[in-house]
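From the pipeline queue, job 12 of 40. The input is one protein chain; the requested action is below.

Action: predict structure.
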Amino acid sequence: MWRVLRDADGTLRTWQLVDANPNALRSWGKTLEEVVGLTTEEIFPGADATGTFMPIVDQVMSTGVPHEWEMAFPITKQVLHMISFPVGEYFVSTGFDVTGQRLQEQELHDALKSLKQATSAAKVGLWDWDLTSNTLRYSDEWKAQIGYAPHEITNSYNEWESRVHPEDLEPTLKQIKRKLEHPDSAYSVSFRLRHKDGSYRWILAQSSVVTEDEGHSVRMVGSHIDITERRQLEEQVIKTQKLKSVGTLAAGIAHDFNNLLAAIIGNLSLLKESDPTAPDRLTLLSEVEDAAIRAKSLTSQLLTFAKGGAPVRKIASVKEVIVESAMFVSRGSTSRCEFAVDDDLSNVNADIDQISQVVENLVINAVQAMKNGGTIHVGARNVVLPETNQWDLSPGHYVQVSVADQGGGIDNDDLPRVFDPFYTTKSTGSGLGLSTSYSIIDRHYGRLTVTSEVGRGSVFTFFLPASNASPMAAASPTLVHGSGRILVMDDDAPIRRLMKRLLERIGYDCDAAPDGDTALG
């Protein structure tokens, strides 16, 4: 308790200590006898205590209303939360030592500031999902990743869900559901999120789940990283790796084409020399047609192999793709493929060209692993993965494809790195085939794995989610007769002649031109 002292005109000048409790005396390091009757300036010499506290005391005494305040006291090294209230010409100050609490708050503030600076520098967006209220809080960096200022996005679950690409929403929700049901399971998923400019950005999301004592999930917290540039680089790698691989197949392809051309030219020569009424004439024509169809198929496979780009998914069967792709890249080598593909293999929702590339990469890898040749076992079957599985995949139906070689195997030290970009144990090759394949399967929500034993060979296995949907039926071509005049333009003379004959056969008059100028003339 303090008694105020005033000048003759009533102006507040200072105050003297009347009484103090033991806690206050201990913090001052004084006894009551030493300080009673002294002013604050005398109790704490050199601290300008009177000047510091004058506004507070003046407010309390002039208004007659208690005042709550907080201040750091350097002399006692304390932060005190105080309440001062007037009693006539006296005032009483009481309070609490909040030094530890304020220190923790400052440390938390500094930690949060550092975290914000670190996540901003690393371009990591943070989110916190309260499952009980179904609200989400997003960090400023999270919002900046998709082009928004902090105030432009509301904290709601719908804000996120409405922005996920339609093709990625269902698989991502399945992964979230699995994580909530099994909080200790791994959660790392990639999906596309709509940017403010309307484009989609690829996001890598990782998270952990907070549970109650009873084990119920109450919060899900995690991070977002924009991996768009990485995905674009992967797509470029896919294109480049495909085109480079074409060169390694040139000898085998040339061999097949030469055989087909020999069959076509040889049979045509026999036809030219044969009697028009000879009984084997249709047989020779069939041989020519069959060889031409096989040449067309080979060309189609080569074009499929060479092209690249973002995945374009559709419901399809992979049975023929597996066999044709494996045969395509193994031709011309000293290795042969042996197949065990189930007849009832499920359909998948996938980019068939990219799945074809995965099979080709794995078979090429097997061919290279067996320098002296051997058998490559290619298998495909339907499997059902349980709730908990070693590949951290969502439970359900999958198509499992495996490629096994009889090579020298992979050393245990190298095995964990076989899917790393540019990593290879071979004397030749870019080291991109397996990493590219891993990326393709991952973006199809599957998994590519490997097991190996030195001296016994390796087995590469990938899983693709199965689909109950049926492929869209292809329309059957029909020959429609008509009449009129049609202009055909093509720079290849045999094609022009062929089209002219076909159109005239179904009733049209036809003119043919080799270029635009001739067609307009």
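Job complete. The first helix runs from residue 22 to 28.
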